[in-house]
Write a structure and sequence with these properties.
Blueprint: H1 2-80, H2 91-106, H3 110-115, H4 133-142, H5 147-155, E1 162-164, E2 167-170, E3 175-181, E4 186-192
Antiparallel strand pairs: 1-2, 2-3, 3-4
Length: 204
C-alpha cells in the first residue's frame, strides 16, 4: 500500500513538472514570435519611409534635367531665329546681305548700292529725295555722305547687327534694311545715312 502511494506521488510530481515545462516552452515560443513580429514591423516601417525619399530624389533629378534641356533649347532657338521679327530668312542670309551693304558703301560703289535700295528714299523736305537708282547714283557722286558717317561705318563690327520689326540695323541706325518680299527673301536698304525712308517708319 505504501508502495502504491509513493508511486502515485512520484507520477503526480512528474506530471506537474511536465506541465510546467510545457508552459515555459509555449511562453518562450510566444515571446520569440512577438519579438520576430516587432522586428518585421520595424523593418517594414523603415522601408516604407525610405522608399518615397528615393523616388522624390529621382523625380527632382528628372525635373532638373528637363528644365535644363528646355532652357538650352530656348537659347538655341532664340539664336537661330534672331531676325525672325522681320524676315523668314536665315541668320546667314541676313548677315551676308549686311556685309554686302557695308563693303559696297565703304568702297563707294554707288552702282551696287543703288541696286540694293528700296525707292523712293530720302525726302523733298531734306532736298535729297531719290526716286530711282539713277537719281541715287547722281546724289551720291555729287553730294555724297560725310566722312564722319563713313568712319563710323568702317569701325562698325558685324557682330553688332541687330533687328526689330522695322528691319535690320547697321552702325547704330545709320543704315537700315528689311525684307521687302518675304517669299523671295528680297532685302532692300530703306535708310542710308541722311537718306531716310520716304514716308516710312524709319526717320532717325
Amino acid at each position: 500500500m505504501k508502495r502504491k502511494i509513493a508511486t502515485l506521488l512520484l507520477m503526480s510530481m512528474i506530471c506537474v513538472g511536465g506541465t510546467a515545462c510545457g508552459s515555459n516552452a509555449e511562453s518562450t515560443a510566444d515571446t520569440s514570435s512577438e519579438v520576430t513580429s516587432v522586428e518585421e514591423d520595424v523593418v517594414a516601417a523603415d522601408v516604407t519611409e525610405e522608399t518615397p525619399v528615393e523616388e522624390n530624389v529621382e523625380e527632382t533629378e528628372t525635373e532638373e534635367t528637363t528644365a535644363d534641356s528646355t532652357d538650352a533649347t530656348e537659347e538655341v532657338s532664340d539664336e537661330e531665329g534672331k531676325y525672325v521679327v522681320f524676315t523668314d530668312a536665315s541668320n546667314e542670309e541676313v548677315e551676308a546681305f549686311a556685309k554686302k551693304v557695308v563693303d559696297a558703301v565703304l568702297a563707294k560703289d554707288w552702282e551696287t548700292v543703288g541696286d540694293m535700295i528700296q525707292y523712293p528714299i530720302g525726302t523733298e523736305e531734306a532736298n535729297n529725295l531719290c526716286n530711282n537708282k539713277e537719281e541715287f547714283v547722281a546724289y551720291a557722286n555729287s553730294t555724297g555722305f560725310s566722312e564722319e558717317n563713313m568712319t563710323s561705318l568702317a569701325a562698325w563690327d558685324s557682330a553688332d547687327l541687330w533687328a526689330n520689326w522695322q528691319g535690320a540695323c547697321i552702325d547704330d541706325g545709320n543704315i537700315w534694311f528689311r525684307d521687302i518680299d518675304i517669299e523671295k527673301k528680297d532685302f532692300k536698304i530703306v535708310s542710308l545715312f541722311d537718306l531716310r525712308e520716304a514716308g516710312g517708319e524709319i526717320t532717325e
